[in-house]
C-alpha cells in the first residue's frame, strides 16, 4: 500500500506551522512518504495522485474544543 502524509501550513505563521512541524517529526519514523507543503491547497491534489492512503495534517480554526482531531 502506498501511504502519504502531508503536513500543510505556513511554517512562519504560529499555529499554522503545526502541519509542517508534525511532518518533520515523522520523516524517517513511519513507513510512508512524508511531505511538508504550504501555499496553494489545490496543488495538494497533484501530490496525492496514486496514494492508497492519505493523512493530511493542517491547523484550522474551529468552533470546537482546542486540540480536537477531525476525521473526514
Alpha carbon gyration radius: 12 Å
Distance between the termini: 20 Å
Contiguous helical run count: 2
- Topology as H/E string? EHEHE
Poorly predicted ranges (pLDDT <50, ≥5 residues)? none
Question: Would you tell me the overall average pLDDT?
Answer: 87
Strand order within the widest beta sheet: 2-1-3
Oligomeric state: single chain
Helix content: 10-25%
Name the overall outline.
globular
Counted beta strands: 3
- Main structural class: alpha/beta
Biggest sheet statistics: 3 strands, parallel
Which band does the percent of strand residues land in?
Answer: 15-25%
Report what the structure shows.
By secondary structure, the chain is of the alpha/beta class. It contains two helices and three strands. It has helices spanning 18-26, 44-47, and strands at 3-8, 33-37, 53-58. It has a three-stranded parallel sheet with strand order 2-1-3. It is globular and about 35 Å long. The model has no long low-confidence stretch (mean pLDDT 87).
Give a brief description:
The protein has 72 residues and is α/β, with parallel strands linked by helices.
Secondary structure topology:
Elements: E1 3-8, H1 18-26, E2 33-37, H2 44-47, E3 53-58
Key words describing this protein structure:
24% strand; 72 residues; single chain; 3-stranded parallel sheet; alpha/beta
Amino acid at each position: 500500500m502506498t501511504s502519504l502524509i502531508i503536513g500543510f501550513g505556513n511554517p512562519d505563521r504560529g499555529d499554522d506551522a503545526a502541519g509542517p512541524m508534525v511532518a518533520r517529526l515523522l520523516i524517517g519514523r513511519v513507513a510512508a512518504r512524508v511531505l511538508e507543503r504550504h501555499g496553494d491547497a489545490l496543488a495538494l491534489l497533484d501530490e496525492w495522485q496514486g496514494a492508497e492512503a492519505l493523512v493530511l495534517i493542517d491547523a484550522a480554526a474551529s468552533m470546537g474544543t482546542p486540540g480536537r482531531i477531525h476525521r473526514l
